[in-house]
Amino acid sequence: MKFTVLFLYILSQIAVGVAGMKKTKNLNDFLLAGRNMGPWMSAFAYGTAYFSAVIFIGYAGKLGWNFGLSVLWIAVGNSFIGSYLAWKILAKPTKAMTQRLNARTLPEFLALRYNSPSYRIFAAIVIFVFLVPYSASVYMGLSYLFEGVFKIDYHLALIIMAALTAFYLVLGGYFAVSLSDFIQGIIMLSGSILMVWSVTSHPNVSGILTGLKKLYAIDPKLTSPIGPPGFWQLFFFVVLTSLGPWGLPQMVHKFYSIKDEASIKPATVISTVFSFVISFTAYFIGAMTRLFFSTIPSEGGKPNPDVMVPKIIESAMPEAAAAVILALVISASMSTLSSLVLISSSAISVDLIEGLEMKLSGKAKMSLMRIFCLIFIALSLIIAILKPSIIITLMAISWGTVAGTFLAPYLFGLFHKSTTKSGAWAGSIAGLIISLGLSLIYKFDSSKIPMFGSLAMIIPLIIVPLVSKFDSKEKILPELLTEKQV
After folding, report:
1. Residue 437 in contact with residue 456, Cβ under 8 Å?
2. Is 171 within the bounds of a domain?
3. Rounded distance, CA 291 to CA 276, Å?
4. 453 occurs within a structural domain
5. Is the whole-model pTM more than 0.90?
6. Contact 113, 482 (CB under 8 A)
7. 404: in domain
């Protein structure tokens, strides 16, 4: 049953790649699907890019084990801040300004908004370098799942998933990504409902109320509003995973391609509901891991929380349910991977090339972009094979660094005409240094990485307007602003 589901899934993605190839005729189609995506496809593209195997395998396992039910605050933050407010506040002005400037990527938008060609080169390098470990973390999560449930060798699983990502993305571009996301979003919603039912009906849990009583018996703090690690640990995880999407290029990109302003309102509702269902499922299952394990399972002689959820799927669920849930986690991961690869390859093949003023035809840029898709996948694969750290640390470093670099310049660039080039640069450099610098100083201590990432996003929100105020004489061209800013 499980292998049948896997085969059908792979077959569907091949079909998506072929369909996308027929719709992709130029670079604008490859990057933005002609800026013509409706509300359902846009909302599902956002939600499926948001959540991957990292949340189900990495975050759910470790955070659910540590925080208990209070981990659900992260689900609330992801739904309200990371999805609802992101669409409500950012979608309309982003769509309007990027269309006015004819900006196709976040680096291109920042360079045009602040009249700084070098900003585009800087942003392209940051995106390509720091999204590679995030992509690697997704591959790692998928491979743990394949190894634990399918009994497929970790390295072979990596190669299969990398090849599948490369096939349908290189062929079909953003249209293939969006069509795939829509299909995968439906699978994710169905799988989430089934996953909650399967876990709560298992004898180890015996229903939600009984499960809560069992958690309380293990440690009363596991059912309290704030779990054992304390308020600040929880706060930084909420900030990192909820505010982070506001500054991540693969998330912002979804606002560029939406069809029109009328599509934004329904997309906001759809995306919020989708985010709540997926995040609640992942973190609720994570909290229940205490009822399936007395200690964190080991791998290679060391405790590894990343293997807990795969083991629950393998041993505690009926084969039919496990097959659907496998499709859920695979879908979540493949959609995120395709978004990461598309954005990262465009950072080099479009932003870096154009930023360096290298003259290439549209056809040559498309070919180059396809090549860099393959290069990005290969680099992610190498990191995943090396298994440098647990999944949650890789993702936290990537999110904190990339979002910290871009969130404040992007946000102030949309809404405040007084924001200057110097202010934007100061914010980006500060975010990069805070996240990466502190991580290096503290030797990538996994317990502190979420705090560093959160600070990297929050502190530039003060630095950007402050530096812009002292540099207020800098001229801002009216055509770079929205109607509300002018």
Report:
1. no
2. yes
3. 23
4. no
5. no
6. no
7. no
Pairwise CA distance, residues 264 & 441, whole Å? 42
What is the chain's Cα-based Rg? Answer: 21
Render pLDDT for 49-99 as a digit per residue (tens, 0 to 9). 888 766 777 677 888 899 999 999 999 999 999 999 999 999 999 988 888
CB 413 within 8 A of CB 363: no
Residue 293 has pLDDT above 80, yes or no: yes
Give the integer Cα–Cα distance in Å for 373 and 367.
10
CATH number at residue 217: 1.20.1730.10
- In sequence order, which residues have a C-beta less than 8 Å from that of residue 405 and are 6 or more positions away? 123, 126, 247, 428, 431, 432, 435, 456
Residue with tokens 């720091």: 130
Q: Which residues contact 396 (CB under 8 A, 6 or more apart)?
A: 240, 446, 449, 450, 453
List the domain range (segments joined by +) for residue 331. 2-108+136-347+360-381
Q: Is residue 439 part of a domain?
A: no
Instruction: Check: CB of residue 227 under 8 Å from CB of residue 65.
Output: no
Cβ atoms of 322 and 314 within 8 Å: the answer is yes
Phi, psi of 398 (to 5 degrees): -65, -50
Measured CA distances, 3 to 107, 140, 327, 338 (Å): 41, 20, 10, 23
**3-class DSSP string for the chain:** CHHHHHHHHHHHHHHHHHHHHHHCCCHHHHHHHHHCECHHHHHHHHHHHHCCHHHHHHHHHHHHHHHHHHHHHHHHHHHHHHHHHHHHHHHHHHHHHHHHHCCCCHHHHHHHHCCCHHHHHHHHHHHHHHHHHHHHHHHHHHHHHHHHHHCCCHHHHHHHHHHHHHHHHHHHHHHHHHHHHHHHHHHHHHHHHHHHHHHHCCCCCCCHHHHHHHHHHHCHHHHCCCCCCCHHHHHHHHHHHHHHHHHCHHHHHHHHCECCHHHHHHHHHHHHHHHHHHHHHHHHHHHHHHHCCCCCCEECCEECHHHHHHHHHHHHCCHHHHHHHHHHHHHHHHHHHHHHHHHHHHHHHHHHHHHCCCCCCHHHHHHHHHHHHHHHHHHHHHHHHHCCCCHHHHHHHHHHHHHHHHHHHHHHHHHCCCCCHHHHHHHHHHHHHHHHHHHHHCCCCCCCHHHHHHHHHHCHHHHHHHHHHHCCCCCCCHHHCCCCCC
The confidence band for 443, taking pLDDT boundaries of 50, 70 and 90, is confident
Tens of pLDDT, residues 6-24: 677 667 666 766 665 555 5
How many domains does the chain divide into?
1
User: Which positions ≥6 away from 146 have C-beta within 8 Å?
Assistant: 152, 154, 157, 160, 161
Task: Write out the two tokens for 181.
Answer: 């996301």
